Amino acid sequence: MSDTELSSAPVTVELSDCSAEDAAAVFDLLRTAFPQGAPADAPAGASGADGASGSTAGDGGGKATVWTETFDIAAAGEDVPPGSAGTLSRPVSADVQGGYVGVDRMRAFLASAFSVSDEGSAFGDQEKDVHLCLSNR
Question: Is the model more confident about 81 or about 37?
Answer without folding.
Answer: 81
